Amino acid sequence: MLRAADYRERARASLSGNWGMAVLVCFVGALLGGIQSVIPVTANYQYGEGMSVQIFGINMSLNQLPAEMLGILAVMMSILSIYALAQFVIGGVVELGMCAYFSKRALGENADIKDEFAYFQYFGKALGLRIVTSIFIFLWTMLFIIPGFIATYRYAMAPYIMAEHPEMGIMEAIEASKQMMDGNKWSLFCLDFSFIGWMILSACTFGIGDLFLNPYTHMATAHLYLSNPDIQASSQRKG
Fold this sequence. Notes:
By secondary structure, the chain is mostly helical. Helices cover 68% and strands 7% of the residues.
């Protein structure tokens, strides 16, 4: 059984000489929603202080802003909300392309930015996969945080599976991911946790470090998907 350090070592080997393209793939993927994220914009009422809004971690009290600024803020929040929705809708198919790119690189095959946009013929299926998995994770989270956390890992390989087998149905890919991750969720968690130091360093650079961290983590995950004996056995059964 490979350890997190082994996946990271293989990821570095696969990225050697290919960092530039991998960074570009992840940068474009982050812009288009292939890497799921939440626009940090929230609004809430605080007793005695009126309404406040938080944008990119900065709290602002709306009752202290002039009317002109409130108008600009409303427009900006609307744009960010539309952008976040567009990311979610487009991101599903872009995520499949990213999974294909990193899987091909992990196998030592040629891959470039075109692979990131190679699945638009499966747009509806990719969007459906993202919606269904998001609903499942949300429902499990409603029970308690830990079941939702486990569900995230249970369905983590569904995009990789659909990228490898685009003929699969949405529920087929989800079920295959559940089978693959049975007994392997801990391995993926340990791999993710092994990057905690790099995540902290990236946070200190206000996210700039993610330009290099994202390719590293995605390549390591692709190696886990391709190299784990239990996962390979499950993939062969479903494929």
